[in-house]
Design goal:
Helix content is 57%, strand content 0%. The chain is mostly helical and 270 residues long. It binds a DNA duplex (21 and 21 nucleotides) through helix 3 and helix 6. InterPro entries: Homeodomain-like_sf, Myb_dom, Myb_TF_plants, SANT/Myb.
Length: 270
Amino acid sequence: MGRQPCCDKLGVKKGPWTAEEDKKLINFILTNGQCCWRAVPKLAGLRRCGKSCRLRWTNYLRPDLKRGLLTEAEEQLVIDLHARLGNRWSKIAARLPGRTDNEIKNHWNTHIKKKLLKMGIDPVTHQPLTKQPSSSQETSSMPQSGNTHQLKETDADGLPNSSEENSSSSPADAENSSGDESLLLDTICSDDSLMNSLWLDQTPLVDALWDSAPKVENTSNDMAMLTSWEDNCAWFLDCQDFGIHDFGFSCFNDIESNALQTLGLEEKGH
DNA sequence: AACACGGGCAACCGCACGAAT
DNA sequence: CATTCGTGCGGTTGCCCGTGT
């Protein structure tokens, strides 16, 4: 059963988004909410694929996005989550409100991977790189095998069993139970409360994370979050001319609780 | 100053999955 | 139950920009 393309390729614009298109999209979403992405381009007056609109919104335009480089703490959390979840970027991103899977994925590929390699850690398996050239080749030349293996051995949703995880008794842990690995994790996870939250599958860990982050501009203040976003998207201020505050911008007023809710739902949903 | 190269990031592509019909 | 549709996800690509020669 052949799938139809998500949109007719004819007349669909591709490539970088213009400020004008951004404005149109955000104006539409704020007016109508997120529903039926396929219809969005038409209704919003965009010559874009619905998919493209969704991506643009989720990865770049969402008001609750935290722009800028990942903090040290965020990076460490990503490393640790990756050790548990593998390349399930959306799951990892769900643990870092304000960050997108794409952003994390890019950051992983461009920064963290190298960092780990420098530290002598295999970014795929999270095992210390072995000296034998053949085995290191093995590990790095089977991109997903390690991860898929890990995934199969974690929960269906890829998250650790709360009770078992604390005692590092998961198979994945057993797999990674070399001294070096625990040393790495110890180094990474020096914050006990943070790690407890993590393994207990509690979203507030991110708050702890942000609180512990040295240069966090938003101290769980949603307006601060908005402000930082506005700082990064000067044009967004223009959108106020469209009457954003009139049509439901309040939906972003309680970003943190929304994020927590969303995360809770997501975990149940997946 | 000009060119080549590499890194970083935004965006696209194709597949998978779940809901709806 | 089979099929269709919409969406989400992960991998990959391509462009832009900074740096080195």
